[in-house]
Amino acid sequence: MSKLYPLVLVHGLWDDPRIFNRLSSHLDQFNLTVFSPHLPHKFGSISLVDLAQLLGREIDRRFGSDTQIDLLGFSMGGIIGRVWLQNLGGSLRTRRFFSVGSPHQGTLLSQCAPSWLLSGVSEMKIGSSLLNELNKDITTLNNVDCRSFFCLLDLMVVPSWHSKLPLGLSRPLPAFTHKGLMLNSNSLNILIKEILFQ
Fold first, then answer.
1. Beta bridge pairs of residue 73
2. Domain tally for the chain?
3. pLDDT digits (tens, 9 = 90+) for 99-112
4. Which of 11, 42, 55, 103 is most buried, with most CB under 10 Å away?
5. Count of CB atoms within 10 A of residue 165's CB?
């Protein structure tokens, strides 16, 4: 088992920290410190940049400004995590970044979202200015062990391969739905092994 760092879990759209209940309950037996802040996105109307700033404040409040952490973002939470890592200095204190079902290249489901009403959702459009900025310069992630996981049949991240980070290892998980990435036992077993033993 590798040295365990505190693990911060970032939920996505239409979710809250309860999406991680199964994962957290499995990790509890290994005495791993797990922190799942609630980031109210108001149905996708809050900018992901604002949510990333809130994430940073919550991490500082829980762990101070120096503690090294691991970060796992599910769905939209992976993009929030990237904004914090790349634009707000989070990469300086993060050892590993696990992205699970996050639309790093955008998703077709966001294409019709009006930015004036659903700012956070519109920032996940294919070709959005936020995603273009994050993908144009990934040098701040070079010292972070990045791993991305996706569902081949994902109906939220369309096409599903848009869940792959532009660096690091990536692999599909044996889930048949988007939420199944965090709820399916076989998917969770793979994630737990990655978190604990890799």
1. 10, 99
2. 1
3. 999 999 999 999 99
4. 103
5. 24
- Residue 41 pLDDT exceeds 70: yes
DSSP per-residue codes, 4-54:
PPPEEEE--TT--GGGGHHHHHHHHTTT--EE------GGGTS-HHHHHHH
In a domain, 123, yes or no: yes
Residue 2 has pLDDT above 80, yes or no: no
Which of 58, 79, 54, 82 lies closest to 8, judged by CA? 58
Pairing status of strand 34-35 against strand 7-10: parallel
Residue 135 falls inside a structural domain: yes
Pair 114, 194: CB distance under 8 Å: no
CATH label of the domain that carries residue 142: 3.40.50.1820
Do the Cβ atoms of 9 and 191 come closer than 8 Å? no
Partnered with residue 95 across adjacent β-strands are: none
pTM: 0.97
Give the pLDDT score at 3.
80
Question: Does residue 1 surpass a pLDDT of 90?
Answer: no
Residue 2 lies in a domain: no
List of residues 6+ apart from 120 with CB closer than 8 A? 13, 41, 44, 45, 46, 47, 48, 51, 76
The token pair at 43 is 């149905």
Residue 1 within any structural domain of the chain: no
pLDDT at 84 over 80: yes
